[in-house]
Structure formats: C-alpha cells, structure tokens
Amino acid sequence: MIKGEVIYTSSLNEFGPLVAQRIIDIASINIDMTDHFFMAVSGGSTPRSVFDTLSKNKFQKSIDWSKVHVFFIDERCVPEDHKENNFISCYKLWLQLYP
C-alpha cells in the first residue's frame, strides 16, 4: 500500500532540503530491499528546490543513483528547448550530474 504524507514548510528554502532528505531515506530503504528505486517526478516550479538540493555533494554521494529510475508524470507537450519543459529543468538542476 502506498502511504502519503503532507509536508508543510514556511518556504521553498526549507522544502527542498526536507523533501530531498525524505527521498534519500526512502530510496535507501528500497535499494537495500530490492536493489532499485522508482521515482515519479512532477513538473512545475515547486520541485526545483528539491532538484537543486539533490545536486549538492552530500546528496550526490548518499546513494547509488544508478539504481534510481526517474519518471516524469506530467511532462508538458512543448519543444525540447522550451522554458516550460519540465525535463530540461530537472536535468539542468540535478540529473546531468549522473552519467
């Protein structure tokens, strides 16, 4: 069963690190149990602070990112180089760090 959790913060500066750490914690448990982790990523501007936090050295080295599978769940139908392309935002802030 999938469990949900509502997380309240007073700013995106608090939101990014808090959610990034939750992702690392949950991913670590799943990688230990199943050797992989599947993650659905929403678009928009809200997750950008999370992507930025995940790009930090502390988070880069915290798990084996080759075992993480990222899926985009609401990608906009816009050209690849469009400013509202959610994948490009995520890639530039975070995913480009992992070959």
Overview of the structural elements:
The chain is mainly α and 99 residues long. The protein has 4 helices and 2 strands. Strands 1-2 form a two-stranded parallel ribbon.
Short description:
With about 100 residues, the chain is mostly helical. Helix content is about 40%, strand content about 10%.
How do the strands and helices of this protein lay out in sequence?
Layout (H helix, E strand, L loop, with lengths): L11 H23 L2 E5 L6 H7 L2 H4 L7 E5 L13 H8 L6
Parallel strand pairs: 1-2
Helix pairs in contact: 1-2
The gross shape turns out to be globular
Helix content: 40-55%
Report the mean per-residue pLDDT as an integer: 86
Largest sheet: 2 strands, parallel
Low-confidence stretches: none
Question: Strand sequence of the main sheet, in spatial order?
Answer: 1-2
The helix count comes to 4
String of helices and strands: HEHHEH
Structural class: mainly alpha
**Roughly how many Å is the radius of gyration?**
14 Å
Q: Strand fraction band? A: 5-15%
Distance between the termini: 32 Å
Could you tell me the number of beta strands?
A: 2
What are the salient characteristics of this protein?
99 residues; mainly alpha; 2 strands
